[in-house]
Amino acid sequence: MAALISLMIAIPLLGAIITFLTRTREQARSIALLTSGLSLVISLILFSRFDSSISTIQFGESYPWIASLGVSLKFGLDGIGMPLVLLSNIVIPLTVLFAWGETKQANQFYGLILLELVGVLGVFTSLDFFVFYIFWEIVLIPMYFLISIWGGPRKDYSAIKFFIYTHVASLVMLLAIFSLYFNAWQVSGVPNFDMFYLLKNYSVIESPLLKDAIFLALLFGFLVKMPAVPFHTWLPDAHVEAPTAGSVILAALLLKMGGYGLFRVILPILPFSGSPGKLISLMAIIGVLSILYGTFLALAQRDLKKMVAYSSISHMGYVTLGAAALIPLSVSGAMFQQFSHGLITAVLFMSCGVIQHSAGTRIIHDLGGIAKHMPKLAFLMLAGFLASLGLPGMSGFIAEFLILVNSYFTLPTFVILALFGIVFTAGYHLWAMQRAVFGTYNEKLGHIHDGADYGIASMAILVLLIIFFGLNPNPVLTMMTTNANQLLNFVVLRGVIT
Amino acid sequence: MSLYTYLLISAIIFAIGAYGIITQRSGIKILMCIELLLNSANLNLVAFSSFNGNATGQVFAIFSIAIAAAEAAIGFAILVALFRVRDTINLDNINILRW
Amino acid sequence: MFSDYAALIVLLPVIAFVLTLFLGKKLPHGGAYLPIAAIAGSFIISLGTFLEIYPTDGIVQQSMPWFAGMNLGILIDPLAVVMLMMVSFVSLLIHIYAVGYMSHDPAKPRYFAETSLFTAAMLSVILSDNILQFFISWELVGLCSFLLIGFWYHKPSAAAAAKKAFLVTRVGDVMFLAGIVLLYVNMSEIITSRAFSVGPENFILQFKTMFEAIPLINPTQLTYITLLFFGGAIGKSGQFPLHGWLPDAMEGPTTVSALIHAATMVTAGVYLVARTFPMFAATPATLSAGVPDSLLIVAYVGGFTALFAATMGLVMNDIKRVLAYSTVSQLGYMMLALGTAGAVVGAQAVGISMFHLISHAFFKALLFLCAGSVIHAVGTNDIREMGGLFGKMKITGTTMFIAALALAGIGIPFINIGTAGFFSKDMIIEKAFEYGELKGDFIPYAFAIIAALLTSIYIFRLWFMAFTGKPRSERHSHESPGVMTRPLMILALFALFFGFAHLGFYDYLNKNFELMTGEKAALEGESLQMSPIIVLLPVIVGVLGLLISYAIYHRRMLDMSKLVSTQNPLYKLLLNRYYEPKIGADIIGVKLTHDVVAQSGEFVDRKIIDGLVIDNIIGNTLFKLGEFVRKLQTGVVQNYASVTILGIGLLIIILRIKFGGT
User: Fold this and answer.
1) Total number of domains constituting chain B
2) Please, which residues bridge with residue C382 across strands?
3) What is the pLDDT of residues C82-101, one digit of tens each?
4) Rounded Cα gap, residues A129 and A425, in angstroms
5) C-alpha pair distances (Å), A379 with each of A383, B62, B69
6) How far apart are CA B29 and CA B22, in angstroms?
């Protein structure tokens, strides 16, 4: 039973091709659900066979590709990638289920969603920088089309903005990858794009300036994707215009690529950079800035979806902060935050989608009392909002608790600042709930219906998962901790922190 | 005659052709100048071939003449078509693809 | 045998929650019997556990690892077991009462599911053996409170009150969380430095580990930790300045007010301080000689709140709001007890405070349920529209009078006969006096005794206005059904007679922190020399308050219309609740946070980052560059050809110069 990972990537790819060729909506969505479901099954098999106690790569696969450039198709999973692979495979089938009623160019719509799955799975499993970059770029294109074809009124502006921002960031990252590649080539005389090999050879670079430049270029590439303040403005625009399925994928999976990059690429080379101390502070500042800035901006929004978009920025700030703290448990907390935020934000964007669909607006002031006619939605949305504001018993709390508690060892001031954000986080969530969902029903909305059953079902599954991982984080947290320990062993040895 | 003479003649023809391409506005004249450029190259090929005792150059020249004929035919056809639509073959006026 | 099933104390109501939520619609009374049965089960197990551990002074400990070195566990010691019994018992009675009270509400399943979840969370707070589980349950309790205040979510005021409650307590919760962060960091530094070890059986945030490590924690840090914990308690127990949410929380059903916002949840803050009392008592005394800093602050905040809230209780016209301010005030007494008595008798303060907590739970739940019965009958909350109800509602009237007597602390000193409040509250006031004598600081005592007078006045004002005189409106009223009056009678019995358990109670609770004796031994002689007037004073002010209210509100001997008018600035200040809603919600919440900070953030985002930097600087520069480069592309082939030829020519010349040749 080897080659499970490539099978997991190949099935949705095949599914995407078939989906594009189908004629009817029924065929398209059934194939999309079937193939993404198969991919989920494979990832569950992988998950059940995964050994959480070792930090090395498991299920490794390697196929030669472009030998003259040292490129090969290498895949494998460790505690950093496994949870995100699982997350991707949970979110995509549920998104397909949620978007079961899509009518506009359905075959292309579901095909693009499957392509997104291919892209993110590739990113989270590739161990060859060249292949990693290809998948990284593959993710952009379907998202561009999802926004620009199925988007809202300003879809062209948003799609282009999304594309330019993330593409510029990818190119900067590509430059850094090349410079790592040529550096390693120079040292050993053999071209090789292997990720760990290149990262290991980072320490050989002599000029501290070049080291810092490479580091910053990689960091920039990942932070734009996350997105971190001040490179975030593409996100709210993209979310506001994107169709719900697009938003869910964007927030739940695409943002995670940035965080993944932090753990996979940034942390291993951080101790070897030219000026680690300054770079750590930089990351911590960006993290806290994102937390607070995202929170306050969310408070200022009138559009429910835009508010959720800013809350994503705020939550991803915790990932940066946890990574910058360089404590094993804070780093595993940051990894868990990625996983948990993927589940939570999917519920939030789905709620926005259902409201938009039923009530025809997402502007908080124009809504009001919709719980009266949409009780199921109100219940699930409340659960999602509570999870998002960090209610204990749900997965978000575990992540934020681990990050805050453990980051205090190295970054006490930043943690205190981040704590201030918590009250306001609760503030905007509850304010939105109170205005939009509770209170007297706004009769101007006419008679509205509750969300469709498939949409409600996929939200309910997500909420159950959020509660499950909030009560029992161990299934994914253990493997994260194993890998975080291994990452940080390295760091402590280098004496970056004591 | 030495090889040098051939090359000199070829260079002169080339310069005339290049000058024509740059200065002329009429499509026909430009096409004719392009023919000049091609023929200067052909002359070079034949000259080198003859002096080196190697027939490859001659073969190339024949290829080149055949392609030039085809190219000229297409070029003139385009110009004729253009003339029918725009009543001119002055290339300065053909600028719909320009910013 | 019961103690082996201690986990069921929490799990039974959780199961009831799930079942009621999904099946409630199909069951009679909205599935009310499921939570009632579950909570009865919890009560029986709690009682059984108590009977099991009481004779041997034992404790129950169960623990299992959770994530990242944390654990989930159960700790039932004397402190926990009395709370468990009280909470499950009061909750049980209120659930039974609610069957009648909520009988007309269409959303009964949701109501009973939520109260059941609340009970589970509250019980979990009580028997947590570690501070993290405590915090998690604490937050869930807050969630249920949020849900239940907003139970009638279609009412805008209820939705707003729910939000306010959650946000204000959240401020406290963040402090509590910060305290946990600080504690964790200190603990783990102690463990890393090998001064202290944790094994597989004790976990880093367990109470017993924490208490053992107290001497090793840096004293200043300990003060910070305890004060941050107390910040959480301030939020949850509605102490000044985070008290504003509690009166607003009365938007929920009255049963909710009785259960959550009077008897149980709001006492969680007091319970937190009691639970971590060894840490509070170990803080250094820098502000006042011989008084640990944290206890001093607890005493002052509690004492001030007791008085501050009582003043507002005097003027409120909503029956539930009067009771809400009364709750805030009484919680202040409990804090005051922990602070002052903690400074003079050490850990015995926990017993004193907890006794008031439990007797308060009985009579305050009773007061609320009576208020609910009145509201159910009259259909209004406004006491100005009531009057003369005693004739029609004898049971409610009598039981409420008993509760009022208990709240006012009426009893006969020296022969020790009196209501529950008489024993519990007078003990607190006496300890405050003792504290004054010993530490030379009578301010807490002054707070306590003045608040006692005001308490008596406002509660009898309420009673006389509602039950005596002539009906002031045309409302039809009737006595409530038996399912509602029977819990009233049971609670009234407790409000009357629970006080007699005080000596046994103090003894039992003193065993809780046997490691801590405080200065008790040295002080026993002095505490006996209290003059009779001091012992009598609490009762005197209680009776005085009753007489004042009787004179004003029943006999109408004084004309209050001058005082009670918006012309009177003091009355206006009190009626507007010291402008706390205005300052909190309007100025801090809306104006400062939303209008200033958030909107300026929005401005920065849209105009500066997006507008100036992205659009103008980066965008325009690139655009202008493009414009310029575009001009070079003339589209005239000849231009390109000339440039090409020129370029080739230059290239040839350069190559010639560089490499020479013929």
Assistant:
1) 1
2) C318
3) 888 888 888 888 888 888 88
4) 37
5) 6, 83, 79
6) 11
CB atoms within 10 A of CB A60: 14
Q: How far apart are the first and last CA of chain A?
A: 44
* Residue C573 backbone phi and psi in degrees, to 5: -60, -45
Is B99 within a domain? no
Domain annotation covers residue B98: no
Q: Are C250 and C324 within 8 A, CB to CB? A: yes
The Cα–Cα gap between C61 and C75 comes to 5
CB neighbour list of residue A445: distance below 8 Å, 6 or more residues apart: A359, A360, A361, A366, A367, A368, A370
**Mean pLDDT along residues C326-331:** 89
In-domain check, residue C376: yes
Expressed as residue numbers, the domain containing C435 is 134-228+239-567
| C620 shares a domain with C533 | no
Mean pLDDT of the A398-409 span: 90
Per-residue model confidence as pLDDT tens digits over A197-239: 888 888 888 888 898 999 999 999 999 998 888 888 888 889 9
- Rounded to the nearest angstrom, the minimum Cα separation between B33 and chain C is 12
Write out the two tokens for C66. Answer: 């959770």
CB neighbours of C362 closer than 8 A, spacing ≥ 6?
C86, C90, C263, C406, C420, C491, C494, C495, C498
Considering its fold, how many domains does chain C have in total?
2
- The answer to whether the CB atoms of A299 and C597 lie below 8 A apart is yes
Residue A213 identity (one-letter amino acid):
A
On whether both C504 and C638 belong to a single domain, the answer is no
Res. A337 pLDDT band, cuts 50 70 90: very high
Q: Is residue B15 part of a domain?
A: yes
Q: Is the ipTM of this complex over 0.85?
A: yes
Between CA C73 and CA C80, with CA C77 as vertex, the angle to 5 degrees is 80
* Integer Rg of chain C from CA: 32
Q: Find residue A194's DSSP bridge partners.
A: A128
Q: Is residue C100, in this structure, part of any structural domain at all?
A: no
Domain of residue B47, CATH code: 1.10.287.3510
Contact between A318 and A287 (Cβ < 8 Å): yes
Residues C533 and C643 reside in one and the same domain: no
Which residues in chain A have Cβ-Cβ distances shorter than 8 Å to C589?
Answer: 427
**Chain B touched by C630 (CB under 8 Å):** yes
End-to-end alpha carbon distance in chain B:
51
Residues of chain C contacting residue A492, judged by C-beta atoms under 8 Å apart: none
Question: How far, in Å, CA of A214 to CA of A232, rounded?
Answer: 21
Chains B, C in contact, 3 or more Cβ pairs below 8 Å? yes
CB C265 within 8 A of CB C141: yes
Domain of B17 in residue numbering reads as: 3-93
Instruction: Give residue A208's identity as a one-letter amino acid code.
Output: P
The values of phi and psi at residue C413, to 5°, are: -65, 170
Distance CA(C434)–CA(C437), nearest Å, equals 5
In a domain, C119, yes or no: no
DSSP state of C261: I
Chain A contact for C135 (CB, 8 A cutoff): yes
Q: Omega before A227 cis (within 30°)? A: yes
User: Do C517 and C583 share a domain, yes or no?
Assistant: no
For residue C230, give both structure tokens: 């107390």
B23 touches chain C (CB under 8 A): yes
Contact status, residue C242 vs residue C171, Cβ threshold 8 Å: yes
> Do A448 and A374 form a contact (C-beta atoms < 8 A)?
yes
Write out residues 37-76 of B within 8 Å (CB-CB) of C: none
Please tell me whether residues C634 and C532 are part of one structural domain. no
Q: Where are the domains of chain A?
A: 275-498
Distance of alpha carbon C321 from alpha carbon C327, whole angstroms? 9
Examine the domain organization and report whether C535 and C607 are in the same domain: no
Both tokens of A55, joined, read: 């930090």
Note whether residue B80 is domain-resident: yes
Could you report the per-residue pLDDT of C207-218, keeping only the tens digit for each? 888 888 888 888
Site of tokens 């001040």: A230
